[in-house]
Amino acid sequence: MSGEKKQKLKARQARGFVDRNAGEIAATRAMVSVIQEVYERYGFDPVETPFVEYTDALGKFLPDQDRPNEGVFSFQDDDEQWLSLRYDLTAPLARYVAENFDALPKPYRSYRAGYVFRNEKPGPGRFRQFMQFDADTVGSASVAADAEICMMAADTMEKLGIPRGSYVVRVNNRKVLDGIMEAIGLAGDENAGRRLTVLRAIDKFDRLGLEGVRALLGAGRKDESGDFTKGAGLDDSQAQTILDYVAGQSGSNADTLARIRPLVSGSPAGSEGVEELARIAELVEKSGYGTDRILIDTSIVRGLEYYTGPVYEVELTFEVKDEQGRPVRFGSVAGGGRYDGLVARFRGEPVPATGFSIGVSRLLSALTALGRVDTAGVAGPVVVCVMDQARLADYQAMASELRQAGIRAEVYLGGSGMKAQLKYADRRKAPIAVIQGSDEAEKGEVQLKDLALGAEMAKAIEGNTEWREARVAQRQVPRAELVKVVKEMLG
């Protein structure tokens, strides 16, 4: 009805998703460029897969009667086939390799970056859309491929400006974990649930320490809030074997291996896992990567049903302060491992593979905390102010000359006056404003305001009179020298 006020649509962001401004995008782009440079130096080539895959290609996420299980965003196409937004970048790679298997070189070394989607409850630092950057080697069963990934991960951290000593690549092996489970009598499908509880307890070692893990291996643990977590129900002997294993990491990879080797001596799989770790340690050490960079750590647990051999995490070890001034650590920013069964789902034959994934947003936050990147904003374009709408073509010509010289430039296209135009240029983070009124035009000159320098100088100036007399950071130059002088000022 004409008399009723039309209700406005409320602008609101979907839960678990974020908008990104120009500064964040520029910082991400720069960081991704560095990662790409390292990966390509190792001989990895880019590949790009779609955001959408058939749901069954994503593995365990299969549709029920109404919709796929929790974890993926899914829909049906016009053929009533289930499609899903990709959950990670590895499952699509496995599909791509299987589909193009005969045409690809083996081993196939590739990297890819892109957004992935999780249909999970969002929370602080937990988003439904986020970027990953992966690198994988498919078709090599050699643990040399795993060692290479670890070395590449270390090189990537340092190339991004994270100093040695502020990160470590921690390595473990799923076969060793399986051997430990076998040693304490938890092999077999009937013990799958208890094994999962044990692995989750091990995963909390960094946060809870030995006694906290001991409680979770036994009857259970009550935390500070009074909440009780049921334990794995192991007896003292079983729990002690697990604790001896978790505590088996030391400053020396050789010492760690010597201490965990007897724990899996009765398990062929466990012994094989230890020897694979020994081989990785040998390979990285001979390539100049000491334990300050790549370290065997028996507390690392990843992909409880996903990985089949070596697993690794990149942990940042430096501390920063949170909003309350309390020290916090970023922890893991990347991880991966060997997943020999994923491509085999499509091929029906074993296809060995290994790779890792960087959490781009989390790593960007860490680099920002270290002061390696600035996400507050990037320099904007030179802004050509419009003093006379009838001379708009002249102003466009100035901007065009600047652009042709490789300088970002724009003409102010609003309808406001001079004061508002300079305010606009400031909000655009413009380094320079170009001004040519009728007086400057008659003289064949332009006025250039160095906005960044002017803002700095203004801090020491009191009052409008002093400001006008100082003509802060302002230059009058011949129109013909516009590009030359702007280049000098930007330099």
UniProtKB/TrEMBL annotation:
Intracellular or extracellular location(s): Cytoplasm
Top EC category: ligase
GO biological process, any: histidyl-tRNA aminoacylation
A GO CC term assigned to this protein in UniProt: cytoplasm
Record-level Gene Ontology MF annotations: ATP binding; histidine-tRNA ligase activity
Presence of the UniProt keyword Protein biosynthesis in the record: yes
Entries under SUPFAM superfamilies matching the protein: Class II aaRS ABD-related, Class II aaRS and biotin synthetases
Keyword field: Aminoacyl-tRNA synthetase, ATP-binding, Cytoplasm, Ligase, Nucleotide-binding, Protein biosynthesis
Domain Aminoacyl-transfer RNA synthetases class-II family profile: 31-381
Assigned EC number: 6.1.1.21
Pfam families: HGTP_anticodon, tRNA-synt_His
Transmembrane feature ranges: none
Reaction(s) catalysed by this chain's protein: tRNA(His) + L-histidine + ATP = L-histidyl-tRNA(His) + AMP + diphosphate + H(+)
Entry superkingdom: Bacteria
InterPro entries found in the cross-reference section: aa-tRNA-synth_II, aa-tRNA-synth_II/BPL/LPL, Anticodon-bd, Anticodon-bd_dom_sf, His-tRNA-ligase, HisRS-like_core, HisRS/HisZ, HisRS_anticodon
Primary location: cytoplasm
Matching CDD domains: HisRS-like_core, HisRS_anticodon
Database matches in NCBIfam families: hisS (TIGR00442)
HAMAP family: His_tRNA_synth
Family classification: Belongs to the class-II aminoacyl-tRNA synthetase family.
Name listed for the protein in its UniProt record: Histidine--tRNA ligase
Source organism of the structure: Labrys okinawensis
